[in-house]
Amino acid sequence: MQLPVTRNEIRKHIRKLRIALTTAEQNLASLRLVEQFKQLAELTQAKNVALYLANDGEINPELAIQWCWKNSINTYVPVLHPFTKGQLLFLKLTPTTELIANKYGILEPKLSVCNIIPVAELDVIFTPLVAFDVHGHRLGMGGGYYDRTLAPFIDGHGPQAIGIAHDCQQLSLLPTEEWDVPLNKIVTPNKTWNWSLSP
């Protein structure tokens, strides 16, 4: 079988792999993800974190969100900016938050200015991804939403970005573009990957 080499080929290949995971495999991955969360130093003092609502076979962080709630960590999820194309807003998520589907069919909180948090006030942003490599490079869905969100904080000031993925989404090397924002840390059900981006 010919291995995927372009970014779009990799996206198609990895998305097929994660969509093929059984319900039991997805549930086990979610449980193990919480165990990894319990070990994260970034969460010991965190007050505000961003996660996401799973779609398209992504690892489901619902149990991790519930763990954050139990540990008095405010949890926010991304919402497509209604006026600025390609940008995200982050809205508070609670057990009673009303959810609606956006243009991609992904659930998100109903927009309310009262529930928006400035990105700079987040302690950690847990980002979904399609694939990652052993150097911390992240491949998203192609819209660039998270790259634009994280770009102002690439110097280390502001929220810490941590990727979340299934173990099957890891590759040895990804083709990268100049606008890609690499990650210092990626959490999978079986491992937490750490990288130093210092020269």
Please supply descriptive tags for the structure shown above.
3-stranded mixed beta sheet; alpha/beta; Rossmann fold; 199 residues; globular
| The CATH C-level class name | Alpha Beta
Overall form = globular
Are there runs of 5+ residues with pLDDT below 50, and where? none
CATH homologous superfamily grouping: NagB/RpiA/CoA transferase-like
User: How is the CATH topology named?
Assistant: Rossmann fold
Largest sheet: 7 strands, mixed
Strand line-up in the sheet with most strands: 3-2-1-6-9-11-12
How helical, in percent, are the residues?
10-25%
Oligomeric form: single chain
Overall number of domains? 1
Counting H and I runs of at least 4 residues, what is the number of helices?
4
Per DSSP E runs of 2 or more residues, the count of β-strands stands at 12
**What value does the average pLDDT take?**
90
Using the CA coordinates, give the radius of gyration.
16 Å
Strand content is 15-25%
Structural class given helices, strands, pairing?
Answer: alpha/beta
Catalytic activity: (6S)-5-formyl-5,6,7,8-tetrahydrofolate + ATP = (6R)-5,10-methenyltetrahydrofolate + ADP + phosphate
InterPro entries: FTHF_cligase (IPR002698), FTHF_cligase-like_sf (IPR024185), NagB/RpiA_transferase-like (IPR037171)
Binding site for ATP: 7-11, 138-146
Pfam family, one: 5-FTHF_cyc-lig
